[in-house]
Design brief:
This protein is of the alpha+beta class and about 200 residues long. The chain is built from eight helices and five strands. Strands 1, 2, 3, 4 and 5 form a five-stranded antiparallel beta sheet that branches. The protein is globular. The model has no long low-confidence stretch (mean pLDDT about 95).
Length: about 200
């Protein structure tokens, strides 16, 4: 899918804000695709760069950019999955091996690494910003016409697995965003009732 994005505004330039009803329509039916349904074609390198650039525009209190990206193209992802499988097998953990299917199947992935800074901005806000990166990356991939899924599993939390990915001790994996073309449209899932989750502060 070709995409014609506006140029990135220069620092300090006014950024026009206008209604975008097409975005509202997208959000009204947005649905993640199951990772095991994702196949080729996947976004080429140029589109991955675009997705990352869009995801980097999330709210970021203090302008710290407390996150980074690790691209897992097909070859790299296969090698990463093999090392994780070796790790799980060495532990005799068949369940962990089985859970690698969601990692192995999609053609490409982007790991979002939360990398909080020592700063007056609370770490919690920095972690939330990394979550916003994952959400924006997921939405942007789907808006580009691909299926996408935000995954965290044992390899997002296990210390040895994170070391294989290249995460430092103070870093966390906010999520793996797996991207490809869905072999079948995802089915709508049960949604929460917003009214049941909403109150109005009355003092």
């Amino acid at each position: 899918m070709s995409i014609d994005l506006p140029a990135t505004p220069a620092f300090g330039a006014p950024v026009a804000q206008r209604p975008a009803p097409e975005v509202l329509r997208f959000l009204a039916t947005r649905r993640s695709a199951s990772a095991i349904t994702l196949t080729e074609p996947a976004p080429p390198a140029g589109e991955l760069e675009t997705l990352i650039a869009l995801a980097a525009r999330v709210p970021d209190h203090g302008k710290l950019a407390p996150w980074r990206f690790v691209v897992l193209d097909a070859e790299a992802k296969a090698a990463f999955a093999q090392r994780l499988e070796d790790l799980a097998n060495a532990r005799g953990d068949a369940r962990a091996v089985a859970k690698l299917a969601k990692l192995k199947t999609p053609p490409v992935g982007i790991a979002v690494i939360s990398s909080p800074r020592e700063h007056e901005i609370p770490e919690w806000e920095q972690l939330l910003s990394a979550g916003a990166v994952c959400t924006t990356l997921l939405y942007a991939a789907q808006a580009l016409g691909y299926g996408a899924n935000w995954i965290t599993d044992w390899y997002a939390y296990d210390a040895e697995a994170k070391a294989i990915l290249g995460a430092a001790a103070h870093e966390q994996v906010a999520g793996f965003i797996f991207i490809g073309t869905a072999k079948e449209p995802p089915l709508e899932r049960e949604r929460p009732d917003p009214k049941a989750l909403t109150t109005r502060w009355a003092g």
